[in-house]
Amino acid sequence: MTIKSVRGTHDLLPESVQLWQRIEASARRLFELYGYAEVRTPIFEQTELFARTIGSDSDIVQKEMYTFSDSKGKSISLRPEGTAPVMRANLEHGLYHDGGIHKLYYIGPMFRHERPQKGRYRQFHQVGAEVLGSDHPALEAEVIDMLDRFLEELGATGLRLLVNSVGCPTCRPGYVKLLREELSKRQDDLCPQCQRRSETNPLRVLDCKVPACQPVIDELPSILEHLCENCRQHFESFRAYLGHHKIHYEVVPRLVRGLDYYVGTTFEMVSSKLGPTQNAVVGGGRYDGLSQLLGGPPVQGFGFALGIERLVVLLEETQDSQLPRPDIFLAYLDEQALEESLQLAQELRRQEIFAYIDFQGRSLKAQMRLANRLNSRFTCIIGEEERKSGEFPLKRMEDGHQVTLKRKAIASYVRGNHGPTR
Ligand code: ATP
Ligand code: MG
Question: Are residues 277 and 366 in the same domain?
Fold first, then answer.
């Protein structure tokens, strides 16, 4: 029996990797324009980091983490998300000591033991960004503007931006109490999990995706009507800044995160082109309480995580995935001509030209067929005559146009004819 990849994990073969590289390159380029620098944290952490921050009543901590004991019996988990590790690194290395703003981004794999389905995997990948050290609503709008530019540049269309405020330790407890009261009247209409959460963490009920719970959720009081003056003003100001950036959004009061360290602004970007329960491409918000939960000083934070697999689903339709085409295919007639070709290829590659040589001992005819299949821009047939004269016949494949060139002239001719190739 052959060995297969683990359920919920995927190989990315060269044709799909191209799109991934494009996404990653756009993120790096664009995020850096907004002042972000990359951070790379380990793929596994102490389980405690996630247990403490994500919340022990969350699906992630309850059943989705890949947790194991190392040889000393320490509990280790593969990271299910990137924000807590970034905050841990910030505290561990004292980045906050300078009192400035730190804009950080990351790109990498995350791990959750969920039921695999389209757009939901056990190893998936996120691009995320975190701003530490400011609670300015204009900065929140700037983050969303950056995301908007990023998605537009890649050609992702039809995404809706949903925004909300989840209040703060001043106003949220009152709302949660009210929610608990309302939910206690509707216990019989709720799914078993919501029945439990009505007591333990009623905010999480708002997030439930079970169809039967939806009519109840729709009738629950809105958190926006229970914000304190600070939160109300912050949210209003955030929306005004979105307006300045000409960004469209919808206010969705049931968009919450059921964790105490989240305050104020939360948002999601969703697409109807994805499945009904995995339509979110981006999730983000403000987490001013996270640092203290990890034993650090107060550090304001705002950020998002974008699921690359879900973005890829949106982009795949528009993408004709093609492998890079060779600039020049060097076809050789015999062993000595192969040696000549190898040398020529080496020279050309040093000048950023993609030169291709066959290594399967094909006949000349078969080499030319391969050049066609690879869609090479030029071909050059090398035999005894070329070796001796140092002049090479180049054929432009698109129209059959031929020229004879000295070897030193080849690179600039190929480049001049087609510009930078990749
Ligand atoms: P969902 O409600 O879709 O499960 P989530 O709230 O668990 O999302 P976050 O923890 O906010 O997701 O992660 C941010 C983004 O990461 C999501 O919007 C999604 O694009 C992506 N994501 C989350 N879990 C997975 C997964 N198992 N497979 C692929 N992408 C995922
Ligand atoms: Mg999830």
Answer: no
| 298 & 404 share domain | no
pLDDT surpasses 80 at 417: no
Q: Determine the distance separating the centroid of ligand 1 and the alpha carbon of 188, expressed in angstroms.
A: 29
Q: Which domain holds residue 277?
A: 14-171+227-316
Based on the fold, state whether residues 104 and 59 are members of the same structural domain.
Answer: yes
Helix (H) or strand (E) holding 300: none
In a domain, 200, yes or no: no
Q: With respect to residue 197, please indicate whether it lies within any of the assigned structural domains.
A: no
Decide: residue 393, CB within 10 A, 0-12 exposed, 13-18 middle, 19+ buried: middle
How many domains, the chain? Answer: 2
Co-location of 106 and 248 in the same domain: yes
Picking from 316, 337, 372, the residue at the C-terminal end of a domain is 316
Q: How far is the CA of 239 from the centre of ligand 2 (A)?
A: 27
pLDDT above 90 for 142: yes
What predicted TM-score, i.e. pTM, was given to this entire model?
Answer: 0.89
Rounded to an integer, the average pLDDT of 117-138 is 96
124: Cβ below 6 Å to ligand 1? yes
* Residue 233 within any structural domain of the chain: yes
Report d(CA 64, CA 140) in Å as an integer.
30
Q: For residue 60, which amino acid is it?
A: I
Nearest-CA residue for atom 23 of ligand 1: 307
pLDDT at 419 over 60: no
- Rounded to whole angstroms, the Cα distance separating 184 from 420 reads 66
pLDDT of residue 420: 45
Atom 25 (ligand 1): residue with closest C-alpha?
Answer: 120
Half-sphere exposure of 342 (CA within 13 A, CB side): 7
Measured from the Cα of 304, ligand 1's closest atom is 14
Tens-digit pLDDT profile for residues 273-296: 887 778 999 999 999 999 999 999
> Looking at the predicted structure, is the pLDDT value of residue 399 above 70?
yes
CA of 114 to the centre of ligand 2 (A): 8
* CA-closest candidate to residue 386, choices 361, 404, 366: 404
Q: Are residues 295 and 399 in the same domain?
A: no
38 in Cβ contact with 106 (< 8 Å): yes
- Residues 149, 68: one domain? yes
CATH number of the domain encompassing residue 395: 3.40.50.800
- Cβ of residue 81 lying under 6 Å from some atom of ligand 1: yes
158 shares its domain with 109 = yes
Q: Which residues pair with 304 in a beta bridge?
A: 129, 284
pLDDT interval class at 79 (50, 70, 90): very high
